C-alpha cells in the first residue's frame, strides 16, 4: 500500500429511496360491473446499508464516490399487485470503521465483523393501495397512500485499524524498516524524521501459516498531545491493537527515558492505551558490540523491572524470530 492510497476519513452523503405510491385502481372487467378497488401497495424504497468487508483495508475507494442513493419503490398497481421494492445500496467498508453523524459528530455505530451490516438510511415505506380502504360504507375508495419519503444524511466514516500489533516510537526509530523485514509491506524508509506520514500495515507470516497484522504509524514526539510533530490524531490506529511494540533505538541517549516519554504521550491521548500488553524492542542493536550490550542489559533490567524488552536489528536480521515468538505468545 502506498501512502497516498491510505484514506482513513471520508464524508459521504446518503439518500434512501422513497416508498412507492399505493394504487387507486378500480377493477373494471366486462362481466363484473362493480369490481371495487383493487389498487396494490407501493414497494418500499431502497435502504442505504453499510457493510463490513474484511478484504478492504482503507476507505480509499470512497474518496471519489461520495454520494450514495438507493432506488425508489415502485408504485402499486391493479389486481392488488404490490410495487417492487427499490434496490438497496451498499457502502462497503473495512473492519474497524466508525460511522458518525456529520452534524453532531455522535457515533452511530461501528462495524467490526466481516459481513456485518447496518442500515444508515432506511427506505420509505410504500403507501397502501385503495384495496385496504374498502369499508361497509365506502365500497369504492378513490384514495390511496403516498409512499413515505426517503431519508438524506451526511455521515462521516472513520477507520480505526484493527491490527494486532501497533508500532510505537520516536521518528527515525526504525519502525518502517522493521515492518519491511517482518512482513511483505514496502513502506518508505529514510534517515530523517517523519518519513512515515500515514499508517502502513503488514501481515507477519509466522510458523505454520499463523499470521498477525502489524501497523506502522508515524513517529511520536514529546508534546504530540499538544500537536507537536504531526500531532497524535493517528494514534487512533493503535487504539484497537491488542499489543503495543515500543521501538527505542540502541543509540538513544537514555532508552528508558524515551520509553517513558512515549508512554506519557499515549496516556495523554487515551489512558486506556496503557491497558494494552507492551513489549519494548531496542532497535538498531547491530550498532552495539556484545560487551556494550551486556552492560546495557544490567542497567535496563533494573530500569525496566518486569517490562519485557529485547534487542533487535532489522538490518542485521537479529532478534527477529525471538521478537515474532514473543509477539505471538502475547497475542495468544
Ligand atoms: N543500523 C541500523 N539502522 C537502521 C535499522 N533499522 C532502521 N535503520 C535506519 O534508521 C533510519 C530510519 O528508519 P525508518 O524505518 O524510516 O524509521 P521510522 O521509525 O519508520 O521513522 P519515521 O517514519 O520517520 O517515524 C533509516 O536510515 C534506516 O535505514 C537497523 O536495524 N540498524
Ligand atoms: Mg516510518
TrEMBL record:
Location of region: Disordered: 16-44
EC number assigned by the record: 3.6.5.-
Keyword terms of this UniProt record: Cytoplasm, GTP-binding, Hydrolase, Magnesium, Metal-binding, Nucleotide-binding
Domain OBG-type G: residue ranges: 163-332
Subcellular location: Cytoplasm
Stretches assigned to the Obg domain: 4-162
Chief place where the protein resides: cytoplasm
Binding site for GTP: 169-176, 194-198, 216-219, 283-286, 313-315
Assembly: Monomer.
Summary of the function given for this chain in its UniProt record: An essential GTPase which binds GTP, GDP and possibly (p)ppGpp with moderate affinity, with high nucleotide exchange rates and a fairly low GTP hydrolysis rate. Plays a role in control of the cell cycle, stress response, ribosome biogenesis and in those bacteria that undergo differentiation, in morphogenesis control.
Official protein name in the record: GTPase Obg
Source species: Aequorivita aurantiaca
